[in-house]
Amino acid sequence: MERELNLFQYEYMQLALVSALIIGLTAPALGIYLVQRRLALIGDGIGHVALTGVGAGLLFQTSPVIMAVIAATVGAVVIELIRERGRTSGDLALALLFYGGIAGGVVLVGLSDSTSSNLNAYLFGALSTASRTDVATIAVLGTAVLIAMIGLRPALFAVCHDEEYARVSGLPVRALNLLLAVTTAITVTIAMRAVGVLLISALMVVPVATAQQVTRGFRSTMAAAMALGLFAGGAGIWMAAVADTAPGASVVVLAIASFVVVTLLAAGWRRLRRARPQPAPAPEPHEVVLGGS
What we know:
single chain, mainly alpha, ABC transporter involved in vitamin B12 uptake, BtuC
């Protein structure tokens, strides 16, 4: 235990912990809207488009993160416009993003002079190599996403729950949909260094699915999901220090373990409540006749 605590005296572990906490808080705050819209896997599609941006950055020797933000944002906006116009199904658009993005990324990385380790860092995450600049970028962008998701919660919930009702109510539906698309792209990009593009959707969706087992209202589910994401982020970094495992994978494993534990406990509690004997109904009072003919 002392050895693991001593590891957090090093700057790279402190930066990894701060990054994981920010991402653990931000990803579920956005993910609850994606789950509401039944787009739980959109993070995978946009993540693979971001991989194309990483490949372009490595090929042209520019910042891979900036190129990933640009590619992910363009991909998210395109899929939203396709979905809105209804020219093809949302699932098909996601499939095109998924396969085209990862194929383009692999081709561009192969054309560059980068080694496979550079690609693996973005596929599976490399949180322990985050610099101060990376953490500052994660903090700024993560804060912006949190402000948007919490500040615009009533409007975003209305759009995700019933888009036609939101349009009739006078809400700027297209602008709100594009905002969700752009913030999804930003979240995917900042989480790429933490958990990798192959595991991003897990951090967006699993805490929300866990919270739904024990909460009912949208606001309470959002708060619980953010708390669970925060726990998974912090405990995952500690687990990585203890077991010498990949930080990103450790965060996701703990998030899934939390889902399993909470689901089993919730199911047991519901079964216990059903098995509890119900009190007998009180007898109805008899009518009393005070007089007669």
